[in-house]
């Protein structure tokens, strides 16, 4: 089975059935990573290029491992030592990579829409690994996978997303994904970090984190993205942490079985305290584990052939 599209550019362009297909395919691939020989021949002879214009630990490594576990050849382009430094445009870089016949280009870029632009020029599949503050679809898919695995489904799940919503591509993709799957989503953060009109995406908006905790099945904390802020959006880190950080005190106001998610990287002591990040309800590292299975599923559904 394949996705009926060449590229994965956002959750926005996915139907509910396509998300279900990706999640169920990921479930079937998760076991591969627990084997002694962590490899299946499914994508032998295929080539995946990772083109990351922004720093990444989890996403880049996860796509590389996923490709290698499927027996594809994975090539990482380090933008810092590429011809981008000599002034080559994104389009020219993409066309030159295409000339080497890859099957898939995974791209992260600081500009919203960059993956969409190169997808129009390339015959190979393009996966958006995060574009500006726009979308991070593979992160939302692994978040949905993690919650579905724990709770058995996504319909009726109450998700609370807390933090820098304005700069968060993770928030945007998760709002789109979870609402498509029948979950209810509330976003919470300081007014300065809340984009105008965000409720049009189908979520509720609040600025009072403590009042929301008791009703959440899943609490997703977001990193404060200082690198994307052009001006100070809160008085101090201490103040932010007091109002919008999740620590043991606030967690006592949440459901005892509430699941804690964070896409990473985490700022310990800012949006999440160490005892919560490392505590029993934190799924932060499980999200990372599941990311490999979800990305294996994406490669399989976009560029794979018949399943062995
Ligand atoms: N979650 C995420 O995108 O992490 P990286 O920036 O390390 O890839």
List keywords for this structure.
5-stranded parallel sheet, alpha/beta, 15% strand, 308 residues, binds phosphoric acid mono(formamide)ester
Short characterization:
The protein is α/β, with parallel strands linked by helices and 308 residues long.
Mean pLDDT metric: 94
CATH architecture of the largest domain: 3-Layer(aba) Sandwich
Shape: globular
Count of all domains: 2
Per CATH, the superfamily of the largest domain is Aspartate/ornithine carbamoyltransferase
- The end-to-end span amounts to 12 Å
Q: Any idea of the CATH topology of the largest domain?
A: Rossmann fold
Structure ligands: phosphoric acid mono(formamide)ester
DSSP summary: helix tally: 11
């Amino acid at each position: 089975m394949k996705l009926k599209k060449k590229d994965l550019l956002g959750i926005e362009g996915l139907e509910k059935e396509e998300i279900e297909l990706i999640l169920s395919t990921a479930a079937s691939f998760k076991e591969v990573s627990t084997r002694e020989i962590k490899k299946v021949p499914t994508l032998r002879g295929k080539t995946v290029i990772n083109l990351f214009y922004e720093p990444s630990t989890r996403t880049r490594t996860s796509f590389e491992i996923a490709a290698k576990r499927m027996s594809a050849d994975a090539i990482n382009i380090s933008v810092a030592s590429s011809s981008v430094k000599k002034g080559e445009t994104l389009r020219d870089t993409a066309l030159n990579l295409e000339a080497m016949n890859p099957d898939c280009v995974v791209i992260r870029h600081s500009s919203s829409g960059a993956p969409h632009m190169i997808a129009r020029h390339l015959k190979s599949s393009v996966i958006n690994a995060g574009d500006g503050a726009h979308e991070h679809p593979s992160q939302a898919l692994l978040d949905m996978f993690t919650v579905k695995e724990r709770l058995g489904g996504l319909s009726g799940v109450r998700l609370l997303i807390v933090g820098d919503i304005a700069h968060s591509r993770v928030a945007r993709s998760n709002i789109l994904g979870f609402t498509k799957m029948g979950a209810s989503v509330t976003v919470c953060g300081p007014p300065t970090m809340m984009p105008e009109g965000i409720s049009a995406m189908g979520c509720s908006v609040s600025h009072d984190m403590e009042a929301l905790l008791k009703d959440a099945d899943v609490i997703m904390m977001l990193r404060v993205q200082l690198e994307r802020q052009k001006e100070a959006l809160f008085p101090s880190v201490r103040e932010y942490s007091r109002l919008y950080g999740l620590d043991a005190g606030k967690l006592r106001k949440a459901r005892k079985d509430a699941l804690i998610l964070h896409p990473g990287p985490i700022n310990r002591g800012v949006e999440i305290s160490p005892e919560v990040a490392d505590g029993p309800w934190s799924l932060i590292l499980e999200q990372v584990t599941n990311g490999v299975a979800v990305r294996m599923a994406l490669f399989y559904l976009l560029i794979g052939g018949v399943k062995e």
